[in-house]
Amino acid sequence: MSTTVTFPGLGLEFEIDRVAFSIGGFNVYWYGVLIACGLLLALAFAFRHCTEFGVDGDAMVDVAFIGAVLGVICARIYYVLMSPYGFDSLWDVVNIRGGGLAIYGGIIGGLGFGALACKWRKLPVLPMYDLTCMCFLIGQGIGRWGNFVNQEAFGYNTTLPWGMYSEATRAYLMNGAVTLPAGMTIDPNLPVHPTFLYESIWCLAGFVMLWRYMKKRRFHGDIALRYLIWYGLGRFWIEGLRTDSLLLVPSIGLRASQLVAALAVVGGIALEIFFRRRTAGKPLMVKLAVSAENRALQKKLEQKTGKPVPVEEPDAVLEATQPRAKFLEQTAEYNASLKTRLEAELAQAG
Length: 350
Description:
Phosphatidylglycerol--prolipoprotein diacylglyceryl transferase; 2 domains; mainly alpha; cell membrane; EC 2.5.1.145; transmembrane helix
């Protein structure tokens, strides 16, 4: 399953095998390994910074698991629906080991089902979105290299120095499944745009910018909207270079993903302007996270007393600009005090 990938303008050549390793005859592909690495790094970032968003790390695990699993499922469904070619069997539809995940489906599924999981685990939805969208950029920036290993999701011909060529790109461009705007032609024997590289760089650059902006955010959901705008801009441009997208308007080369990207950018800008005006001059206050242990005590007390037991205190907040160490200290003190109170009330309730 190896192929030779060359970058003629740079004088580079790589021998790439899609299989990372095998276990008892079962092949594990680099595509899955890279997605897993992106997910793990994203989780590491989320665990380090969740307290600064008022999100409890233990409860976040459940939300991340649900969002990740259902996000992958939705990414596959979106890919199948938007793919310009058909599938021969149900196995071809569900088999993702060789690739075929659409990021917009993953975003929609991850955020949608993640929000439901947040309600279940009593986590704040918009701060969780802010944290998650930075994690998306980490995962996307790394996961896109799976497309390089698979030699998929590339663009049309280019004379730029970093143009890429392989037998895999040549075979794909000759098989008739290529989607191009009306009047455009492509030569399978010439280098193509490595669009996976463009998107990887775009996503990692976006992550750095949002991470640096994290302490300056103005309202809950601010980072999530900026993610939609940044990623939408990049995706609209990069999608226009690709040869495997579903064309909505062939005469002008408008692709389905470009329409989604444009809507994300326009909607994101409109909402960003609206909420920035609405929160002008007001510091963003973050509610301190209630630990999973105290949530369990709260539930137990509610079951005993038969009535709601509030645990959030109005003064248990910090300004978003405060350093991480301050959030960790104040959150620990708040939960220690809350635990003492809940245990005392449980003892009184018998």
